[in-house]
User: Fold this.
Amino acid sequence: MTLPPDYLSNTLRLIFILSIPQAVLGLWLGFVCMGVLPERLAKRILILAIAHSVYVDIFYFLIHIWANFINAVLSMYLLISLIFPELKSKIKILLIFFYLIFAIIFEMIYGLIVQFSGGNDTLTTVSVLWQIVLFAPIFGLMALIIGFMHWKKIHLAQQLRQFIIHVRSKPYFMLLLLVILQLSLFMIFFSNVFFRTHAILTIQITFVLSIMLFIFMTIKIIQIIAHARVEGIYQSQEAYLGDLNKMFASIRGQRHDFANHVQVMYSMLALKKYDQLRTYMEEVVKEIQSMNVAVVELPSPALAALVQAKAAIAMEKKIRFDYLVHTASLTFSAVTSIDLVRIIGNLVDNAFDEVTKLPESEREVHLEMYIHNSDLYITVANTGKQLKDEEIEQMFNPGYTTKAEGHTGLGLANVLERVHSYNGHVSVDSDIDRRVVFTIKIPNSELAKSKLA
Assistant:
């Protein structure tokens, strides 16, 4: 194979002036944005950047741009696996995603410099010192921005990372891969426009593929949004029916045990143990009434069924579950019943999970729903452990959970999404006295519309 003219000097310039700084900053940006900061991060990033830049740039002037790009992406993934073996596969792919974003930003800046410097051929023939003077300020400014983000702990994609890690739906992961493919096509397009302008056919093919991929991604995003809405409704209905089944099972259990209760009470009566009989009867009556009170006090069928279901679960888990639903709140029609069930159900379930970690005597959950200044307020308080500010900040992130396996960490995220869809607000207070209190405030949008009319 015959090497191009000035192959060695051009390759060395590409490695040390452009590729290594670009790789270091691109990888650093990815780690900071995701909030993933492994041990010896700086040292390992530098080793990875040098190894990747040297390997890829050796072939840069020898193979086609398509082959070079595929080689770059695959080698990046393999090197990340070797140098950061503790990272999960999805994190590695996200890291490459942010690396490509940074590379595209730099390619656009480089393209502008090429245009104002007389073309790529002119830029590659200037002195090494001039190239350093030209690109060092750009890399320096980017390093300052990323360093500031690192220092201030500005993790722009932390929620995206948590969502991608915990999501089990293939369409979301496939969409991420399509975005990476689209970024790859952009990279190839810029490279051919600014650096290898003779490859007109490659430019045309890349452009057509980019348009087709963009159309496909748009359709896919619409499908995912529609599927997510249907799946959200289905999950709410499934949880709702699951709670009802537990309630009915509890009622059937009460009926089954009723004969045993009668026998015990008859025996106490025969033995003339009247005090013990009175105490035992009060416990039995209290248990039965707890399953019937919601129907009497709550005229809303959906809310009554939900409260009954949660009361049955609370009884099973030895939780003291109190609720106060003001009559005025039942006339609040700005929120659909299914969303009301979803919001309250997730908050109460989360509260139950927290208090079951405590001794039975300390397990308390309180639900209240009322109207204040025409706005709907829902509060769910539990006696769980006091939360730190960091936990409160992260608890609504998709995928974040402190529970055991089997929990997706999407319950509170779904609550936040539903409340925001009604222009509402969610707040969390945690102190020694009240422990943990979730407060939902939803404005009466229908009242606002009527006033405007």
